[in-house]
Specification:
The complex is a heterodimer.
Chain A lengths: L4 H24 L7 H19 L1 H7 L2 H24 L15 H32 L4
Helix pairs in contact in A: 1-2, 2-3, 2-5, 4-5
Chain B lengths: L1 H23 L2 H29 L3 E4 L10 E4 L1 H28 L5 H20 L3 H20 L5 H31 L4 H8 L6 H18 L8 H7 L2 H26 L2 H5 L4 H21 L4 H22 L2 H32 L10 H4 L1 H15 L5 H15 L3 H27 L14 H19 L4 H13 L4
Helix pairs in contact in B: 1-2, 1-4, 2-3, 2-4, 3-4, 3-10, 3-14, 3-19, 4-5, 4-10, 5-6, 5-10, 6-8, 6-9, 8-10, 9-10, 9-13, 10-13, 10-14, 12-13, 12-18, 13-14, 13-17, 14-16, 14-17, 14-19, 14-20, 16-18, 16-19, 17-18, 17-19
The chains are: A mainly alpha, B mainly alpha.
Chain lengths: ~140, ~500
C-alpha cells in the first residue's frame, strides 16, 4: 500500500498503544473487569489493524499461520499445564494455592497470572487465525 | 490418595492430550496418545465405579480446591460412573477400530486434527457426565458439540458439510435453550450446583420461573437427544460422518444428553414434582412412541444403510425415553440398561457398516448385493446385531425390552407392551432388507472382487457383537448397576 500516508502513520502510532492497553486489561484481570479473553481480542485487533493497512502478506511475514496453529493449542497447554503442576504439588486440579509453599494467596496470584497468559495466547491467535482464513479466501 | 484425583484425571488428561495432539500432529503419535488417554480414562472410570459400588458413597471432587456449592464440583455416583465407563469404553474401542478407516477416509494432512477433535469430544462427553454443576455441564456440552461438528464435517462426502451445519444450528438452539433454563433456575436459587439447586428449588417449584426453567431445560436437552420430532439433524449427521465418527457419535453423544435429562427430571426437579405434577411423563411417552414408529418406518425406506441405522437410532432413543416416561423403577432400569445395550449394539452395527464402506466404497443398499458371500464374517455379525435390535431372547435387545415391558405392565399400560411388540416387527422389516440383499442376491457380473474388512476393524466390531450376546445372558453388570442407579435417582439427589 503506497498511498494513504495518514492511515499508515496513524496506525503505526496507534498499534503500540493498543498492545499496551491489551496488557493493561490483561493484568487488571486480577482486580476488576478484564483478563485474558478481553486482552486477547485487543491484541488480535491490533494485528488485524496492521494487516488492514499494510496488507495480509506483510502481516503473515511477521506471524505465519503455521505459528498460530501451534500457538492456539499451546495456550490451552499452558492453562492445563498449571492444573497438572498443581497435581504434582499435591493439590487438586487448578488449586493455585499450591503454587507457593509459603503463602497460598501468592500462589493464587501466580496461578491466575499463568492461566490468563494461556488464555491470552489462545484467544489472540484464534482471532487472528479466523481473520487469516477469511481474508485469505479467494486468493 | 490417588483415587481422590481420579475424577479430575478422567476429564483433565484428555484435554491436555488434545492440546498435545494439536501441536504434535503426527498421525501415529496422535493415535498412540489418544489410545493411551482413552484407555486411562476407561481404567479410571471403571475403578471409580467399582469403588462406589463397594462403599456406596459418591465421589466428590473440589475443582481448584474451592468447596461446592460455590466452587465447581465433579461428582461421580453410580449413575454417572456407569455412563463414564460406557463413554470411555466406546471411545477406546472406536480408536482401535478407526485407525484403518481414518487412513482411507480422512486426508493425511488433517489426521492429527482428527485425533485432537476426537479427544476434545471425549473430554466434553465425559465432562457432562462427571460434573455436578449445571453451567459447567453447558461448557462441556459446547466442547463436545463443537468438536463433534468438526468431526462430522470431515466426512468424505461433501454433504457432510451441510449435515454438520444443520447439526450446528440445531445443537446451538438446544444448548441455548438449556442455558436459558439454567439461567432462570439460577436467578431463583442463586446456585449452579445440582445437589444444592435441588435443595433450594424444593420450596420454589410452583413458581413460574421454576416451571419455565424446567421447560427450557427439557426442550433444550430433547433437541440434543434427538427426541422425535426434534431429531431432524440426526440422520444426515450419522450418514455422512466418517465411519469411525458415526460409531462413536451413535454410541455416546445422545446417551450423555439423556443422562443429563434424567439428572434434571429426577434429581433436580424431583420425582414428586416433575413426574407427578407436570405433564412431562405424558408428553415424553407420546413422543417416545411416535419416535419408535416414525423412526422405524423411515428406516424401512432408506437406501443408504448408515441413514437406515440412523433412523433406527431415532427409534431406539424412543425406547430409552419411554423408560423415563414410565416413571417406575422397572421402566427406568430398562431405560438405563438400554442406554448401555443400544450403545453396544448400534456401535457394533455401525462398525460393521464402516468395514463394508471401506471394502465396497459405498453404503448404498443396491451396491451390497452378494456381500454376504464375500464378507461372511461381517455380514454374520450384522445378522447377530440385527437379532439384538429385534430383541431376540439371548441378546441384549431382549433384556432392555423385557424391563420396559414389565415396567409398562406395572403401570397397567398393556397397550404399550403391544406397541413394543409391533415395533419389533418394523425392525425385522428394515434389518431383513439388508440381509436379503446381502445374502440372497448375486454380486453383479464384472464387479471388482472384495474381501473382509481389515482385522482390527472386524475384531473390534466382533468384540461388541459377542458382548451383545454375553450381556444378553449375564446381566449382572448392566442390570445390576442400573438398578442401584435407579435407587439413587428415585431417592432424589442424595
Amino acid at each position: 500500500m503506497r498511498g494513504h500516508l495518514i492511515l499508515r502513520v496513524v496506525s503505526k502510532l496507534l498499534i503500540p498503544f493498543l498492545l499496551l492497553f491489551a496488557l493493561y486489561v490483561q493484568f487488571h484481570g486480577d482486580f476488576g473487569p478484564g483478563g485474558g479473553f478481553q486482552a486477547g481480542v485487543i491484541v488480535a485487533a491490533a494485528f488485524v489493524l496492521y494487516a488492514l493497512i499494510f496488507g495480509l502478506r506483510e502481516m503473515q511475514r511477521i506471524i505465519p499461520p503455521a505459528a498460530l496453529e501451534v500457538a492456539v493449542p499451546l495456550g490451552v497447554l499452558i492453562y492445563a499445564g498449571v492444573g497438572v503442576l498443581t497435581w504434582f504439588l499435591g493439590g487438586n486440579f487448578l488449586d493455585y494455592g499450591m503454587l507457593d509453599s509459603h503463602d497460598p494467596s501468592h500462589g493464587q496470584h501466580l496461578g491466575i497470572l499463568l492461566v490468563e497468559a494461556g488464555v491470552l495466547l489462545t484467544v489472540a491467535s484464534t482471532m487472528l487465525l479466523i481473520f487469516y482464513t477469511f481474508a485469505g479466501r479467494g486468493r | 490418595m490417588l483415587i481422590d484425583q481420579f475424577p479430575a484425571i478422567v476429564v483433565g488428561v484428555p484435554l491436555v492430550a488434545a492440546a498435545l495432539c494439536a501441536i504434535v500432529r503426527n498421525e501415529t503419535a496422535c493415535w498412540l496418545i489418544a489410545l493411551a488417554v482413552a484407555f486411562l480414562s476407561f481404567v479410571g472410570s471403571a475403578t471409580m465405579l467399582g469403588q462406589i459400588q463397594e462403599y456406596g458413597v459418591a465421589l466428590s471432587y473440589e475443582m481448584g480446591g474451592w468447596a461446592p456449592p460455590a466452587g465447581i464440583e465433579l461428582r461421580v455416583d453410580l449413575l454417572s460412573g456407569y455412563l463414564l465407563v460406557l463413554v470411555s469404553l466406546i471411545a477406546t474401542a472406536v480408536l482401535i477400530y478407526g485407525r484403518q478407516s481414518v487412513r482411507v477416509e480422512i486426508k493425511e494432512s488433517i489426521r492429527g486434527w482428527y485425533y485432537t477433535m476426537y479427544l476434545l469430544c471425549m473430554c466434553g462427553l465425559l465432562g457432562i457426565v462427571i460434573t455436578g454443576d449445571a453451567f459447567n455441564a453447558f461448557v462441556f456440552m459446547e466442547i463436545s458439540s463443537l468438536s463433534m461438528y468438526t468431526l462430522i464435517a470431515l466426512g468424505k462426502d461433501r454433504r457432510a458439510l451441510a449435515a454438520a451445519y444443520q447439526y450446528l444450528i440445531m445443537g446451538t438452539i438446544g444448548a441455548t435453550m438449556y442455558v436459558i433454563g439454567v439461567g432462570l433456575l439460577f436467578t431463583i436459587t442463586g446456585t449452579l450446583n445440582l445437589v444444592d439447586m435441588a435443595d433450594r428449588l424444593a420450596p420454589l417449584l410452583d413458581t413460574p420461573a421454576a416451571i419455565a426453567g424446567m421447560a427450557f431445560v427439557v426442550v433444550g436437552l430433547s433437541l440434543k437427544i434427538a427426541l422425535f420430532p426434534l431429531h431432524l439433524w440426526l440422520p444426515n449427521a450419522y450418514a455422512f460422518a466418517p465411519s469411525a465418527v458415526t460409531a462413536f457419535l451413535a454410541a455416546t453423544a445422545t446417551k450423555v444428553s439423556i443422562y443429563l435429562l434424567m439428572r434434571f427430571i429426577y434429581s433436580v426437579f424431583g420425582f414428586g414434582f416433575a413426574i407427578e405434577q407436570t405433564p412431562i411423563p405424558e408428553v415424553v411417552m407420546v413422543l417416545s412412541i411416535a419416535a419408535i414408529f416414525a423412526g422405524s418406518f423411515s428406516a424401512i425406506f432408506q437406501e443408504n444403510i448408515k441413514r437406515m441405522l440412523a433412523y433406527s437410532s431415532v427409534a431406539q432413543i424412543g425406547y430409552i425415553t419411554l423408560g423415563i416416561a414410565l416413571a417406575n423403577a422397572t421402566g427406568l432400569t430398562g431405560s438405563l440398561v438400554h442406554i448401555f445395550n443400544h450403545a453396544v449394539m448400534k456401535g457394533a452395527l455401525f462398525m460393521l457398516v464402516g468395514g463394508i464402506a471401506l471394502q465396497i466404497g459405498t453404503v448404498r443398499l443396491s451396491d451390497m448385493a452378494g456381500v454376504g458371500k464375500a464378507m461372511p464374517l461381517t455380514m454374520f455379525g450384522f445378522v447377530l446385531g440385527g437379532f439384538s435390535m429385534l430383541g431376540v431372547p439371548g441378546t441384549v435387545g431382549f433384556v432392555s425390552k423385557w424391563y420396559l415391558a414389565i415396567g409398562a405392565l406395572e403401570n397397567g399400560w398393556w397397550w404399550v407392551v403391544a406397541l413394543l411388540m409391533l415395533s419389533s416387527l418394523l425392525v425385522l422389516a428394515y434389518m431383513g432388507r439388508v440381509i436379503e440383499v446381502a445374502f440372497f442376491r448375486e454380486r453383479p457380473e464384472g464387479a471388482p472382487p472384495i474381501s473382509e474388512a481389515p482385522k482390527s476393524m472386524l475384531m473390534t466390531a466382533w468384540v461388541f457383537i459377542l458382548a451383545c450376546i454375553y450381556l444378553g445372558f449375564d446381566t449382572s453388570f448392566t442390570v445390576g448397576v442400573a438398578q442401584q442407579a435407579v435407587d439413587v435417582l428415585m431417592g432424589g439427589a442424595q
